[in-house]
Every structure is written in structure tokens, then in C-alpha cells.
Amino acid sequence: MERILIADDDKTSREALQLALRRDGFESLATQSGAEVLSLCKGENPPALVLLEPALPDRDGIEICKEVRSFSDIPVIILSSRDDVAAKVLGLAFGADDYITKPFDTREVMARVKAVLRRTRIHNKPKNTLITYENLIIDMNRYEAKIGGKVCELPPKEIELLFHLASNPNKVFTRDELLDDVWGFEYYGDSRTIDVHIKRLRTKLDGVSDKWFLKTVWGVGYKFELNE
Amino acid sequence: MERILIADDDKTSREALQLALRRDGFESLATQSGAEVLSLCKGENPPALVLLEPALPDRDGIEICKEVRSFSDIPVIILSSRDDVAAKVLGLAFGADDYITKPFDTREVMARVKAVLRRTRIHNKPKNTLITYENLIIDMNRYEAKIGGKVCELPPKEIELLFHLASNPNKVFTRDELLDDVWGFEYYGDSRTIDVHIKRLRTKLDGVSDKWFLKTVWGVGYKFELNE
DNA sequence: TCAATTGTTAAGTTTCTGTTAATAAACTGT
DNA sequence: ACAGTTTATTAACAGAAACTTAACAATTGA
């Protein structure tokens, strides 16, 4: 779930935005302080996007935008008042991704939030997308695996798990590492889940090759074992 | 002969520009309406460049610039008044290629027009507008598809989507990527839209060939699957 | 205006995913 | 080697998530 940070000192706007965000399945987080925007963006778990009112009490919004841009790519949408053209202009000049004029229609805000997230998501997609071994090809571009020339349909979680293991052949991963790497940082669930997915992969890759297979490392985790 | 579109509500400017353009061997075309700028740029025979005064009577010039950029690469030069800094900056932020401050020297305008055209011509390499596979031809020049020799009428969005998918056979596109690539960055809409268009395409291409079809990649997106 | 295209919504269906619990296997200390 | 303990395998189920589809609403252009 993506978290959106709302920085606005007007309570009414803030609440309207939080409500709209929640309705569309976003997590939200509000502050009135520019300093806090910065510390949240710098912190452990930065928001996916910032909705920024440029006239915050403690700091100039444009400065905030500039500074956020100096250390991260977190997208920023400026929530300027109708007549505050200067803020819009400067914001965009300093790297804001969009602007919205107050008073706003929350549906428009949501649409723009989604559009900006969509745009920014695109260019951080994985680069290295193809792995080939003896009679095994994993192509994350096509989202399919070829085993002995035959295309094997694998659901997303399974192919991602296989891809991750096969990207580091012979390296053992603990279940916790796999949950972090494949399921993602914030996943909270039982690590037996891994076992089940390994099992499902195994039944599909069963006896295909003796050069590679999914090996259990007892008491530790799993690895993609590759010989010769 | 390249055609330049002048969008300005001031008759004096317009005539000065038209004269200068003609003298340098350009065709010109003038309007006072923002809506017309858009329809001309979208039309059959779009201009090679737009000279845009941001304060048009019917629409905000910046919006126009943004919108033109959302569906094409036609270069735009902003003709802002001396004190309208906001328009300049916003215009550039939204993809304008240059700006000129009024009152202008027509020789300077011509120099910039030529410079911008030179720059953009380099990028506008001829695009591949024809795709052919086993009994499928997509001709984006004519905006039509032939399937088994028979012309199949497809509305614009559908053929654009099909063309884009078919341009990268077997590659999976997420809904977000398709919205960006086919609908454009500025599109604010729901990604379920993709599903509906896929469905419409499918009913039209149904069972035409077993060499290719539109495939759902569960949890990821869609692809144009091509065999052999 | 009408008709065609495009976008939205919601119900219905399919596929996948995580959990549980029973069973099997591997290790441990004696 | 044995009993006891820990860990892994497996199948079955329930719920969640994703896709399909149809019908309707909005938009666009003739």
C-alpha cells in the first residue's frame, strides 16, 4: 500500500484529502510542518508522494520542494491557491511533478496522484530481465519461463521467486530474506508461505534437469543449485 | 514546405509573423482560438511548429501546450508578453521548446523557429508505421488493420493499442505502461479502461489466427503473443 | 441532433495466495 | 540405534486479488 504525505496547514483540506486517499486505497499521513516533511522523506520509510501546500507556517514550500528533490525522487504535487502563480511556477521549476489549484475537486486530486505515481513508477522498473541456463530460460520481460524449449506458465509470485533464486545460483536464502526480497519490505506473513511456493515450483520443474534444481538447506532456507 | 501555426489574438503580431514566415519560405496558418490549435494539431496534416501566445481568449495557453504535448511532439514556441514570466516558465516546464518575449523582432523569431525545427527534425526520425505478421497488417499511416486480406475497422484507440502491443511482440506491458504509452502522460483515468479496450479488440480479432493473440498475463498486464 | 467512440462501474467468474494441519524427514543427545 | 525434537513437505481450504463482461454514461465529431 502506498503512503501519501499531505503537508497542509488547513484542516479542512487535509481531512478531505485523507478521506479521498483512504477511499482509493492509499495510506495517508499529514503534517503542517515543513521540517517534518523533510525528515519523513529522509527517514526509513519515506512516502510514495507528497501533496505540498507551499505556504506552510514554518518554511517556504518551494524550498522544501527543492530540498526534497536534492536527495530523492519522491514525486511532489503542489497545492497552490488560485492566485499564487509564483508558487506554481517556482515549484515546477524546482522539480515538482504537477500542481493543483485550490479549491480542488478531490477526484481530480486522486486522478493526478495516480497519474504522477504511474509516471514515476515506470522508470524504476528492473533492468536485468533474462536468465539462461542449461535448458532453462527465465524472461521477466515476457513473464514466462521456458524449460527444455517448452513455455511454462508461472503465476507472478512463483516466477519472481524462481527468478530471484536463479539470479544468485548456489546462494542460500533464508525465508526471511526471500520474504523481504520477493514479497517486499512491508509484507507481514508467515514464512511457511515460502515452503508452499517452493513446492509449487518444484512440481512444475520436476525432473527437468539434473544440472539445476531447488534445494532445501535444512535449518537455513533454500537455494537454486547449479552444477558444472 | 513546412507549415507554421500562429496562435495569437493580436492582429498586428499575427500579420507580422505571417509576413516574415512567408518571406523565409514557410507556409503559415493563423488562429485566435486555443481549441482550434488542438484540432489542427490532431488533424490529418498537423503543422510543423506552433507559435503560441499564452493569453488566448478561449483557453489557457499553458493548458494547450500541455495538451499538445500529451499526444504529439509538435514543437511549441511561447510568445509571452514581457511581464508574463509565469507563462514562460510554466510553458517550458510543460514541454515548450522555446519562448520569445513580446514585442519581438521578427528576424529573431525566424531564427528561433529555424533553430527549433532543426533540433526537432533530428529526433523525428521516420517511424515504423506498418506492422505485418501472418495474415495481420497494421498500417498506422492509414489507421487501419487488415486481417486475412479483409479490412477491419478499428476505432483510433483500439488500433493504437493494438499497434503498440504488436510493435513489441511477446513483451508484457503493465496497464500503467499502456496508459503512458498509448493514452499519454497526462491521461488521468482508471486503468480498467485497458481491460475494456482489450476485450473490444478481442471480439474483433477473435479466432483469426493461432499464430498471434492478445494474452493476459495474470497479475501483470497484457501482451501480443506471437508464435513461431 | 444523432451515432460512434471512449470511459466508468459493478456484478460475476477465475486464478492465485496464504494459512492450516497432518505427515514425513532430518537432526540431536543419549 | 533410539526416542524425542525440530524442521520441511504436502494437500486442502478459504479468502483475496485480478480478470471478464455487459450495460450504462460521457464525450466527441459529423
Protein traits:
homodimer, 228 residues, alpha/beta, Rossmann fold, Arc Repressor Mutant, subunit A, 4-stranded antiparallel β-sheet, 12 strands, DNA-binding
Question: Overview of this structure, please?
Answer:
The structure is a homodimer of 228-residue chains. Chain A has 228 residues and is an alpha/beta fold. Chain A has two domains: 3-122, Response regulator (Rossmann fold), CATH 3.40.50; 156-226, Winged helix-like DNA-binding domain superfamily/Winged helix DNA-binding domain (Arc Repressor Mutant, subunit A). The first copy, chain A, is built from eight helices and twelve strands. Chain A has helices at residues 11-23, 34-42, 61-71, 85-93, 106-122, 156-167, 175-183, 192-205, and strands spanning 3-7, 27-31, 49-52, 76-81, 98-102, 130-133, 136-139, 144-147, 150-152, 173-174, 212-217, 221-226. In chain A, the strands form three sheets. Chain A has a five-stranded parallel sheet with strand order 2-1-3-4-5, sandwiched between helices. In chain A, strands 6-7-8-9 form a four-stranded antiparallel sheet, covered by helices on one side. A three-stranded antiparallel sheet of chain A has the order 10-12-11. The longest helix of chain A is centred in the middle third of the chain and has 17 residues, at 106-122. The mean pLDDT of chain A is 85. At the A-B interface, helix 4 and helix 5 of A face helix 4 and helix 7 of B. Chain A binds a DNA duplex (30 and 30 nucleotides) through residues 155-158, 189-190, 192-193, 195-199, 202, 216, 218-219.
